[in-house]
Amino acid sequence: MRVAVLSDVHGNSPALDAVLEDLARHSFDAVLCLGDHVSGPIDPAGAAERLMGLGALCIQGNHDRWVLDAQGARAGAVDIFARNLLTPTQIEWLAGQGAEARLGTDIYLCHGAPQGDEIPWLDNFYKGRTTTLPSEAEVTRAAQGLTAAVMLCGHTHVPRTVRLRDGRLIVNPGSVGMQLVRGSPDAHYAILEQRRAGWQTALIAIPYDTESAARMAEANGFSQWGEAIRFGWAGPEHLF
């Protein structure tokens, strides 16, 4: 089995287009999307349209919840911006997603961690400009009760793989559309393939027209996103 794993598109359709073009070079049994699909100042409706066309297994992230509850206290400017651009069909698609999902018995999907979509699993989110892997005990504790061979998470935008002592694999594919504290603006996703020896992971980084995406964000009134999209060095402060 081979699956593509996308997360944290954040409405960045130019970045998503680059990933989808790369996906077209491969064959997959499934495409999995781990949430935070549309919340961003670039092209929320365009990103939703592309993701809906994939027929992917998708779950909600925390920003998807806030887009759906755009009048709520947690919704930020980019969540409200996205909600105002989505069609009723796209809102229905977003609202129909759960907080977690499974593909067969082997693959488990969540956005942050099994305990909640705002909880980081493989990275402390963020301590200043640094991200650090939590202790082995913390990471393992969050996987307690899960029997899937592969556990997928997003939320922190940092690509990482961890293999627990019992052989279970945890993968964060990174973010398609919003690079933070990465030092690279490239769009990220992951390919997982089941081989005879077990599941193997490829963490992919795809260059795309970041200048175009940054200008779209700036034209939509979100100038603070320009630097982050162009260069990928920025932290999350003031973006959401």
From TrEMBL:
All residue ranges annotated as the Calcineurin-like phosphoesterase domain in the record: 1-193
This protein's GO CC annotations: cytoplasm
Record protein name field: Phosphodiesterase
Recorded family membership: Belongs to the metallophosphoesterase superfamily. YfcE family.
Pfam family, one: Metallophos_2
Coiled coil regions in record: none
SUPFAM superfamilies assigned: Metallo-dependent phosphatases (SSF56300)
Gene Ontology molecular function, alphabetical: phosphatase activity
Record InterPro entries: Ap4A_hydrolase (IPR050126), Calcineurin-like_PHP_lpxH (IPR024654), Metallo-depent_PP-like (IPR029052), Pesterase_MJ0912 (IPR011152)
Domain of life: Bacteria
